[in-house]
Write a structure and sequence with these properties.
There is one protein chain. By secondary structure, this protein is an alpha/beta fold. It has 1 helix and 14 strands; from the N terminus they run αββββββββββββββ. It has a 7-stranded mixed beta sheet. The longest helix has 25 residues, at about 5-25.
Length: about 160
């Protein structure tokens, strides 16, 4: 497999993510959701819990982590010179951790949705899971998507995955 075909496949997968995210956002319940927000810019640690919503974020100096739980559980951890984002809604579980020059994002929407995203090399990555889906981005091997509707794009490995359920 050549690098250009890997890049082409990753680009196509990233373009395909838009409709998946829109569909998940439209089908996700919004009434009376407990919300937590945990921004951690620079050297800081924060956590919050309210009803079924939980979040935690830790960041070293020069990094930034943010986690948001909307009736879900989200955790983000960022080393120096990196960014980390985790968002969980309606029973989802999202975790994101980053090392220097990486920027992983994990978004889990719906019951049983799980995303674990790691940034270990320079580059951005994203994992999105709908109800029942599991998405894993390691930054070393290609991402994996299984269960329900899920998507991942990883510019650390120039690979992606798509699960339609």
């Amino acid at each position: 497999m050549t690098i250009s075909s890997s890049i082409r496949r990753t680009g196509i997968a990233l373009l395909g993510a838009g409709p998946v995210v829109a569909a998940l956002a439209l089908t996700a319940p919004t009434a009376a959701a407990a919300e937590t927000a945990c921004p951690a810019p620079g050297a800081s640690t924060t956590s919050a819990a309210q009803s079924n919503a939980r979040c935690s974020a830790t960041s070293e100096a020069g990094g930034a982590a943010a986690a948001y739980g909307f009736d879900g559980t989200a955790a983000a951890d960022a080393d120096a010179t990196s960014l980390s984002l985790a968002i969980a809604q309606n029973g989802g579980r999202a975790t994101s951790s980053s090392m220097a020059l990486s920027g992983p994002a994990a978004i889990a929407i719906g019951p049983g949705a799980t995303v674990n995203a790691s940034g270990v090399r320079p580059g951005l990555s994203i994992g999105i899971a709908g109800p029942g889906a599991t998405v894993t981005v390691t930054g070393v091997t290609g991402p994996t998507c299984s269960g329900g509707v899920g998507f991942a794009g990883d510019f650390q490995t120039f690979q992606g995955c798509l699960s339609l359920g």
